[in-house]
């Protein structure tokens, strides 16, 4: 269903009866659609004939075998929350004003990750759009939105979504989302949407009432999705149609695929390969590139290897190894998964080879991990960062690097991220050394679920040495409020100075060919060096000690970083 299909089709293969409830109009029985060559398993229901209904959008839900009503699994809008009726929304009704946008290959671009609910005090898509001048002046090419799909409650990171097609109403709903994408494109900024296909949230998930959406086993975050079991074809179609919805109907330029290592799929053609084929077909059809970026901790180049070489053909993947090497060498932390990265040699290796764990022993996992990156895969296919929502939010108190690093080492982290050979990503507020934390927050209305979430989170990260006594309560509204950016900070002298440094680095990055590798990578006497194009970058890992910048330096930050053109 791509628009407002008033036959109200729904997949419920095991149901004996399905009715559609139309708010204020009554209940109408659906008829089972016969199986066909296109859909041999059948299982779909719809109105035999669509009556004449009022023209305005209708609220509706489904009763399955007398139970319900439940929201539409493909609901485009949930104005009253995920437990209530869906509301019709036709994305094709909009007359878009972004026709001049030709898109761009997002590998090598400067990406900015933000969470709509905490990026501004208002916490809406329209308020985020009003901050575009700041991002454009910063040098951002692409905005990556944390998940916006509908979840239970008023605030959440977004990874507890249960209706993957609907935009959370607190953010402004689907029309605000369209306005956001449109204004970004008019200003020359691409949009990547973070999507979660590996699990569903714990509250408001009614998909199991309709069919076998859930499979066997579970990950840390919930029960696995049925990608390769009986009747999984329609579950996969549900995901592929969702990807197409964002890429086609909502005009986004790419998707960040959450935790693809948690996808349990033993099909001959993996779901990730199918998603990559879909994205490439849409790019060919529309003339606008569509970029798929995988979050994965597997260090497996198969994800981004060409399909002609038996890979999945995704366009990029996150590389946590680079983060760990930057973080450990600047902060001195060596507990948990930082243990293998706490030497400068780790930083040298990731700049030379992309992955640190490329078949090496991982002390955190207590096994060998990863494999080497293919020599023909450019490092721009690796998305790197010194801070992101996970690496900050998965700390005990959600503290940013600002809480532990002096300005010199913060400047060093920025230079390593933005001038390195990878695709750099910044986390909202990083550019001015924001002091607001980014903590794990939830708003589950069910007290027992809130308690279980808090306890489970502490247990999940026990090996990182957290003190449970300092971990904020995710359900406390203050945890959410503390995590909202303070937009008065960029006006303060020290913050403004860091912001200017980030602007300098993004401008310098544009003078280097995007695919230029890092050469002459070395570490000597506390200084990490590399060359990209005509730029020689020198970074003091202690944040000081480089001495006064030479007269031919094109950029410098105290005695921590200097960049010369040679």
From TrEMBL:
GO terms for biological process: trehalose biosynthetic process. The lineage of its organism: Bacteria, Bacillati, Actinomycetota, Actinomycetes, Micrococcales. The active site is at 258 (nucleophile), 295 (proton donor). Residues 478-488 have a biased composition (Basic and acidic residues). GO terms for cellular component: cytoplasm. Signal peptide: none annotated. The record marks 390 as: Transition state stabilizer. Pfam families: Alpha-amylase. This is Malto-oligosyltrehalose trehalohydrolase. GO terms for molecular function: 4-alpha-D-(1->4)-alpha-D-glucanotrehalose trehalohydrolase activity. Residues 465-488 are annotated as: Disordered. InterPro entries: GH, GH13_cat_dom, Ig-like_fold, Ig_E-set, Trehalose_TreZ, Trehalose_TreZ_E-set_sf. It is found in: Cytoplasm. Its EC number is 3.2.1.141. Pathway: Glycan biosynthesis; trehalose biosynthesis. It catalyses: hydrolysis of (1->4)-alpha-D-glucosidic linkage in 4-alpha-D-[(1->4)-alpha-D-glucanosyl]n trehalose to yield trehalose and (1->4)-alpha-D-glucan. Belongs to the glycosyl hydrolase 13 family. Residues 113-509 form the Glycosyl hydrolase family 13 catalytic domain. Substrate binds at residues 256-261, 320-324, 389-394. Keywords: Carbohydrate metabolism, Cytoplasm, Glycosidase, Hydrolase.
């Amino acid at each position: 269903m791509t628009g407002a299909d008033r036959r109200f089709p729904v997949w419920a293969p095991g149901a004996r009866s399905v009715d559609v409830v139309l708010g204020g109009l009554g209940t109408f029985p659906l008829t089972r659609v016969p199986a066909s060559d296109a859909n041999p398993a059948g299982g779909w229901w719809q109105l035999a004939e669509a009556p004449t209904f009022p023209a305005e959008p209708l609220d509706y839900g489904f009763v399955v075998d007398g139970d319900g009503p439940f929201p539409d699994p493909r609901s485009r809008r949930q104005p009253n929350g995920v437990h209530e009726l869906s509301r019709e929304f036709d994305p094709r009704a909009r007359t878009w004003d972004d026709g001049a946008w030709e898109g761009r290959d997002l590998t090598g671009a400067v990406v900015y990750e933000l969470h709509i609910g905490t990026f501004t005090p208002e916490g809406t898509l329209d308020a985020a759009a009003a901050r575009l001048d700041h991002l454009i002046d910063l040098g951002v090419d692409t905005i990556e939105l944390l998940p916006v799909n509908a979840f239970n409650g008023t605030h959440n990171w977004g990874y507890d979504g249960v209706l993957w097609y609907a935009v959370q109403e607190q953010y402004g709903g689907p029309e605000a989302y369209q306005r956001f994408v449109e204004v970004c494109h008019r200003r020359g900024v691409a949009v990547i949407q973070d999507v979660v296909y590996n699990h569903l949230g714990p509250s408001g998930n009614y998909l199991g009432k309709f069919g076998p959406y859930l499979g066997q086993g579970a990950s840390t975050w919930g029960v696995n999705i049925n990608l390769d079991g009986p009747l999984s074809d329609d579950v996969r179609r549900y995901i592929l149609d969702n990807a197409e919805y964002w890429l086609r109907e909502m005009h986004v330029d790419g998707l960040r695929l959450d935790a693809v290592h948690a996808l349990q799929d033993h099909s001959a053609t993996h779901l990730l390969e199918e998603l990559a084929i879909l994205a490439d077909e849409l790019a060919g059809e529309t003339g606008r590139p569509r970029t798929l970026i995988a979050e994965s901790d597997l260090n497996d180049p198969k994800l981004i290897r060409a399909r002609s070489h038996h890979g999945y053909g995704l366009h990029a993947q996150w590389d946590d190894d680079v983060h760990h090497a930057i973080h450990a060498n600047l902060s001195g932390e060596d507990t948990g998964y930082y243990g293998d990265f706490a030497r400068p040699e780790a930083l040298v290796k990731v700049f030379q080879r992309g992955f640190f764990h490329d078949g090496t022993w991982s002390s955190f996992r207590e096994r060998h991990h990863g494999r080497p990156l293919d020599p023909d895969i450019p490092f721009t296919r690796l998305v790197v960062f010194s801070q992101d929502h996970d690496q900050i939010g998965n700390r005990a108190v959600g503290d940013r690097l600002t809480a532990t690093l002096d300005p010199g080492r913060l400047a060093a982290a920025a230079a390593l991220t933005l001038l390195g050979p990878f695709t750099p990503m910044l986390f909202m507020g990083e550019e001015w050394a924001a002091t607001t934390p980014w903590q794990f927050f939830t708003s589950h209305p069910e007290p027992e679920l809130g308690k279980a979430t808090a306890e489970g989170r502490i247990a999940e990260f026990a090996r990182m040495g957290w003190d449970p006594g300092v971990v904020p309560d995710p359900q406390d509204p203050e945890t959410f409020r503390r995590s909202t950016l303070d937009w008065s900070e960029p006006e303060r002298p020290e913050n403004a100075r860091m912001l200017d440094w980030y602007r300098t680095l993004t401008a310098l990055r544009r003078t280097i060919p995007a695919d230029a590798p890092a050469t002459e990578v070395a570490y000597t006497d506390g200084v990490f060096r590399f060359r990209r194009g005509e730029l020689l970058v020198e970074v003091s890992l202690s944040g000081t000690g480089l001495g006064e910048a030479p007269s031919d330096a094109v950029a410098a930050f105290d005695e921590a970083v200097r960049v010369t053109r040679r």
